[in-house]
Amino acid sequence: MSAAREDAPLRCEGLARSFGGLQAVAGVSLALPAGQVTALVGPNGAGKTTLFNLITGNLRADAGAAWVRGRPITGLKPWQVARLGVARSFQDLRLFTHMTVRDNVLAATERSAWFWQPGGAAGRKRRQAAAEAALEATGLAALAGARAIDLAYAERKFLSLARILAAEADIWLLDEPASGLDPASRTRFAELLRAATGRGVAICLIEHNLDVVAELSDRIAFLDQGRVIAEGDPRSILRDPALAAIYFGDRHEPATAAAETTA
Ligand SMILES: Nc1ncnc2c1ncn2[C@@H]1O[C@H](COP(=O)(O)OP(=O)(O)OP(=O)(O)O)[C@@H](O)[C@H]1O
């Protein structure tokens, strides 16, 4: 194994999980380098969200292991993984919809409180400051007193990101964080990611929009049928015709395609 892989803040080896007869994740080994955005790309059902769930402890792995800064996390509960500095967002956002924007962000700081922040009044103050900074950075400060349920779609996406920012984690797992964002919001989102990688955060992003992937990612891991089948530089992966065929659902073997053409 390369030194870079060993040094990565988050690393997994041979993670696997099936549901009944379906092998959703079939032995994934992956490292997330500090200060880089890794896009997890692949067709629907490739196992991307399941992989996140295995890393964060939301699902138990059948096989394999994962480490945060060299510490084994396999078998830990989600809150224990969070307290090691892994922050995660969900496709369905999972906000506390009837709480205020500020309280949503504060709740995220509390989950990560033990190892990262001092306790008592000083800890509370620091968490409040982190929450306010996250609200500022995501453009939500003016909406801090609004209920999450009353936010527009893009604002909810930024609230989800503000929760991640406030947790002061150095590993971010983001499940389709940019989907449905208008171009201006996407630019703001890209700036926030760049600022985070500039601080050394390791980011893994599940993303279906390949323009967003090209714009945001430093590297791609291409997942298909539960396996990483290609990994590396976005330009070469996005130009690979075989991967494009898998991504867009055209899995015809040449013989089959010929047979169909002549039928
Ligand atoms: N809890 C579950 N029970 C049964 N099957 C599941 C469960 N979670 C995921 N699966 C199945 O595992 C496979 C991988 O799902 P997963 O959601 O990880 O894929 P994905 O790559 O994230 O897909 P998408 O891009 O559509 O979100 C799919 O066939 C899915 O139906």
TrEMBL record:
<dbReference type="GO" id="GO:0015192">
    <property type="term" value="F:L-phenylalanine transmembrane transporter activity"/>
</dbReference>
<feature type="domain" description="ABC transporter">
    <location>
        <begin position="10"/>
        <end position="250"/>
    </location>
</feature>
<protein>
    <submittedName>
        <fullName>ABC transporter ATP-binding protein</fullName>
    </submittedName>
</protein>
<dbReference type="Pfam" id="PF00005">
    <property type="entry name" value="ABC_tran"/>
</dbReference>
<dbReference type="GO" id="GO:0042941">
    <property type="term" value="P:D-alanine transmembrane transport"/>
</dbReference>
<dbReference type="InterPro" id="IPR051120">
    <property type="entry name" value="ABC_AA/LPS_Transport"/>
</dbReference>
<keyword id="KW-0547">Nucleotide-binding</keyword>
<dbReference type="GO" id="GO:0005304">
    <property type="term" value="F:L-valine transmembrane transporter activity"/>
</dbReference>
<dbReference type="InterPro" id="IPR003439">
    <property type="entry name" value="ABC_transporter-like_ATP-bd"/>
</dbReference>
<dbReference type="GO" id="GO:0015808">
    <property type="term" value="P:L-alanine transport"/>
</dbReference>
<dbReference type="GO" id="GO:0005886">
    <property type="term" value="C:plasma membrane"/>
</dbReference>
<keyword id="KW-0813">Transport</keyword>
<dbReference type="GO" id="GO:1903805">
    <property type="term" value="P:L-valine import across plasma membrane"/>
</dbReference>
<dbReference type="GO" id="GO:0016887">
    <property type="term" value="F:ATP hydrolysis activity"/>
</dbReference>
<dbReference type="InterPro" id="IPR027417">
    <property type="entry name" value="P-loop_NTPase"/>
</dbReference>
<dbReference type="GO" id="GO:0015188">
    <property type="term" value="F:L-isoleucine transmembrane transporter activity"/>
</dbReference>
<keyword id="KW-0067">ATP-binding</keyword>
<dbReference type="InterPro" id="IPR003593">
    <property type="entry name" value="AAA+_ATPase"/>
</dbReference>
<dbReference type="GO" id="GO:1903806">
    <property type="term" value="P:L-isoleucine import across plasma membrane"/>
</dbReference>
<dbReference type="GO" id="GO:0005524">
    <property type="term" value="F:ATP binding"/>
</dbReference>
